[in-house]
Automatic annotation (TrEMBL):
Pfam families: SapC. It comes from Thiohalocapsa halophila. This is SapC family protein.
Length: 257
C-alpha cells in the first residue's frame, strides 16, 4: 500500500526524489481513472468503461482481466501500449484532499523514489520555496484533477439520462473465456431511443462525445485478450527454460529440450 505523506519543508527539506523509470508500481492497477482532457487520446489505445463509486459512475481505462494484473505493464516494467493514463504519469506524487476545497501535494514515501542528496532532485530551493520541478508536478496534478471532475460530471449526466448499463465482459484468453465483472458501459439501445431534447443537452455539455468514445473504445478489448495470451505464453516459456532444475532446485539434465 502507498504511504502518502504531505510534502512539507519540515519533512522533506533535506530530501530529494527521483523520477520513475518503470511502471511496475502500476502492475496491479486494473481500473485507472480517466480525465476528460485525455479522452481523445485514450480512446485510440485503451478500452474504456465506467465503474460505480459512492459519488457516481467513474470513467476509467480497463487495463486487465484479473483483479490485480495490469496487462499493459510488461515483465520488464515497460508500458505495452500507445497511451499512458495521466493518473499513472504523476507517480510518485498525488493530491490528497485536506479540506473541503483544498488539495495537498503528497508523495508515496514507500515508492523507493524518496532519496537523500546528492541522489535525485530537491523538493525545495535555497529560499525554501518548492523547486520548478515540484511546481510543474503540482500544476499537472491539479489540471488532471479538474479534468477528472469534469469527466465525473459528464458521466453523471449519462447516468441520469438512463444511458449507463451493466457490462458483462467476457474475454477469450489462452485459459478460456475470462469474465470481467463490475463494469458498466453506454447502453447503445437506450442511446438510439434517447429523446431529441436530451440528446441536444448531452451534446452541448460534451457528455454525448464521451458516450461515443466509450462505445468506440470497446474495439480495444481484443488487445486485452492478446496481451493476456502473450504474457501466458511468455510465462510458460520461462517455466520451460527452467526445466533443467529439479523440484528441489538441483540441476536436472535428464530432460531434453
Amino acid at each position: 500500500m502507498p504511504n502518502w505523506q504531505p510534502i512539507t519543508q519540515e519533512r522533506h527539506g533535506g530530501k530529494h526524489w527521483r523520477r520513475f523509470g518503470s511502471y511496475r508500481f502500476a502492475a496491479d492497477r486494473v481500473l485507472v481513472p480517466l480525465a476528460a482532457a485525455e479522452l481523445s487520446r485514450a480512446v485510440m489505445h485503451l478500452p474504456i468503461a465506467f465503474a460505480q463509486t459512492e459519488q457516481g459512475p467513474m470513467l476509467c481505462a480497463l487495463l486487465g482481466v484479473q483483479p490485480d494484473r495490469n496487462l499493459f505493464v510488461g515483465a520488464n516494467g515497460r508500458w505495452q501500449g500507445g497511451y499512458v493514463p495521466a493518473a499513472l504519469r504523476g507517480h510518485p506524487f498525488a493530491l490528497a484532499r485536506t479540506g473541503e476545497d483544498q488539495l495537498t501535494l503528497c508523495i508515496d514515501e514507500d515508492s523507493g523514489l524518496l532519496t537523500s542528496p546528492p541522489d535525485g532532485e530537491p523538493f525545495f530551493g535555497a529560499e525554501g520555496k518548492p523547486t520548478q520541478a515540484i511546481q510543474d508536478v503540482l500544476k499537472f496534478l491539479e489540471q488532471t484533477e479538474r479534468s477528472r471532475a469534469s469527466a465525473a460530471a459528464l458521466c453523471k449526466q449519462l447516468q441520469e439520462a438512463g444511458l449507463i448499463a451493466e457490462w458483462p465482459v467476457k474475454l477469450k484468453t489462452s485459459g478460456g473465456e475470462q469474465p470481467v465483472g463490475g463494469l458498466q458501459r453506454v447502453d447503445e439501445s437506450a442511446l438510439g431511443a434517447c429523446p431529441a431534447d436530451t440528446l441536444k443537452a448531452l451534446q452541448q455539455s460534451g457528455a454525448l462525445t464521451l458516450a461515443y468514445c466509450q462505445l468506440l473504445s470497446i474495439q480495444h478489448l481484443q488487445r486485452l485478450g492478446e496481451l493476456a495470451q502473450g504474457q501466458a505464453q511468455s510465462a510458460q516459456q520461462r517455466r520451460d527454460d527452467l526445466g533443467f532444475l529439479g523440484s528441489d532446485g538441483s540441476l536436472d539434465f535428464s530432460s531434453q529440450h
